[in-house]
Amino acid sequence: MPAPKGDSMRGLSVFISDIRNCKSKEAEIKRINKELANIRSKFKGRVCGDKMLDGYHKKKYVCKLLFIFLLGHDIDFGYTEAVNLLCSNRYTEKQIGYLFISVLLNDTHPLMNLVISRIRDDMSSRSTAFVNLALQCVANIGNREMAEQFGSEIPKLLVSGETSDSIKQNAALCLLRLLRVAPDQMTDLDWTPRAIHLLNDPHLGVVTSAVSLIEELIKRNPEECKSCVPLAVARLGRLITSSYTDLQDYTYYFVTAPWLSVKLLRLLQNYPPPEDTTVRCRLTDCLDTILKKVQEPPKSKKVQHPNAKNAVLFEAINLIIHMDCDRKLLVRACNQLGQFLQHKETNLRYLALESLCLLATSEFSHEAVKKHQETIVNALKTERDVSVRQRAADLLYAMCDRSNAQAIVGEMLSYLETADYSIREEMVLKVAILAEKYAIDYSWYVDTILMLIRVAGDYVSDEVWHRVVQIVVNREDVQAYAAKTVFDALTAPACHENMVKVGGYILGEFGNLIAGDARSSPRMQFELIHSKYHLCTPTTRQLLLSTYVKFINLFPELKETIVEVLSQDSNYRSSNVEIQQRSVEYLALSKVVTEDILATVLEEMPPFPERESSILAKLKAKKPESDGLSSSVKTSDRIQQKATSANDTEKPPVAPGNNGTAEADLLGLGLITTPAPTTTAEASKAPPASTNNQFLADILGNGTVEAGSNAMVLSQPQTRSTALVDLESEYIRLIYRPQGVLFENALIQIGYRSEFQGNLGRVQLFYGNKSGSAITAFASKVVFSEICPTTGRSPLNLDLRPAPTTIEPEKQVPQVLNIECLVDFAEIPVLSINYSNQNGSNQLSLPLPIFLNKFAQSAPMDQPTFFARWKLLCQPGQECQRVAGAKLSFNLNDIKQRISGSGLSILPDIDPCPTNIVCAGIVHTASQQVGVLARIESNNFRVTVRSTKASVSDCICSILLTELR
How does pLDDT run across 200-212, given as a tens digit for each residue? Predict the structure, then answer.
């Protein structure tokens, strides 16, 4: 029976039916293998007298291969036949060819060039159907090569007046795909203004596709696409207003073009409210009409009708919130959403809560949202869907202010006892933030946090109890109350470990304030805390040991008891290193030092510095990063903006710190005599430091930020001198490493990267603005005062290229310093920086890690050569020998890596002692090259350096000693 020549493929239908009728996986594989063997034999040409395959049979067999692939089986043949189908003049055959290629072909396939050639032929075809097939294939595959090949041809199809509507629609979608996958290839966008005018096109498909394309273009260049706003408003007005007949034929359950309306409303959210009064009034009328239409009786009982209306409504509300300038619209939107809070549809209640979260952040609609507080609390407690309860909690958090804070916090605490486990941790953070932010009476704050620990102790993170301790330490008026409250809390039979941590810390600092009460005498405090000691984890026990030693200072009568506890084998010889170390050190401290020194060491903690709440930072970290597409993400972002003033209540006093104006040796080695980093603005007034220091990761080659893991004490108040000590180790690393962090505080981070060749060097400095405001009036210079006694000139030629005067928030700018070493030098250049921000002017003076060893290069040699040269360098002044003061653990591999990074080459098998290190190098200057030989003895950390120049020997010896630190 001859094969049918129509579009129906009986053989394919039979094959699919056979697959569906298979009773087992083995039967299916057997049938597929049989079919693959048949197809493979047909594709080989003349087999068993068969004639060459025509287009119909190729199409049928290619469809079978595609179906087999979709079942999850690999296909390794048939690609050539599919590409050949592209040459067919029959639409169905060409369509199957494009379908096969779009699904199975990848970017690196050897036939891709041939496919691109076929696509180009079809794009230039007079057949609209063929052009559409080619465009759809490009949109589906959408790789960089296609962007390069067709990036200039497809826009012509889009804006041409002779192109049909279907081609324009496909061309817009195709360009959208190419702009997303290869934006760097799509640089010629001269067609943008004409694409924007497609918003007036009468064809629904064309204008819908054009809106998506324009929205992508806005992300690349919003200023160039600004002309789309009046056009979008005009088109939206024609769709919404009944007096127009625009696209009235395109209705979906009595709603005119709902998807286009949603896209236009979303497009307008990329710009601020229109400045033109006429355009703004027209847009306001559109939004007002949308809100009115929701109140109209439904025109259909089918669910699609309210779904379409509500889709337009919620996007209109998002635009109203984005504009945030019309009080009447905001209040009306809030009232409309309030009606949805008790709707029978769960999805509608969820969306209403989500939109109300955004409205709660607006000053115009905040009070209107608060009217629904009772309904929202009821939703939090009674909703079955956990995602709706999550949104209700978010809304309560967003609508909270001083007038309702205690009520909302109380409701959230009450709900926490039965809350779903998936949202407990986030709710704990929100309760802690609200209690701190709106605490008028700090005794209420203490009660709230302790209740939080009782109710949800397992979900209370360290940031929460750290924060309550910081606030108690900073506020004298609440210290006695906090001590009494935590003491009472610890008397409960069941006490969470976080409560023990809070109680241990606060009683260790302020237990003396309640010691006059017989019920909380010193002995009672100690016995109560110690009764919890053996039930706690090692981390908590470490903190309690610190509490015990604090008690020695507060209550001398407890000294013998505490010494006995510290001397117990479970502490003094604990397998936990930190517990053992604390026990040994605290025991020695209590026995060796005088009472005056002990009182000084164990005195009350000073106030903590003012900083961003770590609880708020943790809550932000729990939210996903905004993608610009998810409305729930936008909701979270807007709510977080409301919480950024979590410390806007009365601030605790900040401990005074060193202003850093005195000159200091940064390394403390006598090697550098330059000013330490200084600043004139108070660091405590600076915006909070970002918790994600990734904006310099591309420069420093390190995407991680290491933090100390010591959990035994809370974050201590740090003065600026403390911050410099933290940078010392990083500065020493820059002696032998080419890149790293030169300086960092709450305002600015300075990255350093260098490369040296011979007597020339190039340093790149990267200034990153970590604050939330722009850095202005930025200026920098390099100061180097050393003068060579023989030449009367500076040993270094320093050429600092200009840097931008403004650094935007969370941005970085580079600056290049070119260096030429003329003669050897001992001093270090200093980078002087001046800049201003919203808190005032700032100054920094930073020693640059440009040492003499940066201009050294390795000099490999064998043992006889080394000793021959070593013996020649025996004249007075040619040798410098020093011994390190501290006996540190000697890590041979680590020391070798440091020396290799310093420009000297390690010479193996030179010294008879295998733990000693012998190295050699050549220091390059413009005037001469100085050979350097060095020997490091591990047993006493003695460094010996010999060279032909005394000043070079002395400098290299100092540098090597520094590296051993």
Answer: 999 999 999 999 9
The answer to whether residues 53 and 43 touch, using CB atoms and an 8 Å cutoff, is yes
Q: How many structural domains compose the chain?
A: 6
Instruction: Dump pLDDT digits (tens) for 427-480.
Output: 999 999 999 888 888 899 999 999 999 988 888 888 888 989 999 998 888 999
Contact status, residue 817 vs residue 800, Cβ threshold 8 Å:
yes
> Could you tell me if 807 and 692 lie in one domain?
yes
Please list the residues that pair with 755 across neighbouring strands: 762
Classify burial at 400, counting beta carbons within 10 Å of its beta carbon; exposed 0-12, middle 13-18, buried 19 or more.
buried
Q: Which of 165, 194, 225 is the last residue of a domain?
A: 225
378 contact partners, CB below 8 Å, separation of at least 6: none
Shared domain check, 869 and 800: no
Full residue range of the structural domain in which residue 476 is found: 439-601
Rg (CA), the chain: 37
Annotated binding site: 10-11, 42, 56, 60-64
User: Do 445 and 581 belong together in one domain?
Assistant: yes
CB 365 within 8 A of CB 334: yes
Pairing of β 796-800 and β 917-924: unpaired
Per-residue burial over 867-897, b if 16 or more Cβ lie within 10 Å, else e, is eebbeebeeeebbbeeebeeeeeeeeeebee
Region at 142 (left for phi over 0; alpha for psi -120 to 50; beta for the rest): left
Per-residue b or e along 554-581, where b marks 16 or more CB atoms closer than 10 Å to that residue's CB: bbeebbebbbebbeeeebeebebebbee
Q: 750 with 846, same domain?
A: yes
Give the residue carrying structure tokens 């506890």.
Answer: 565
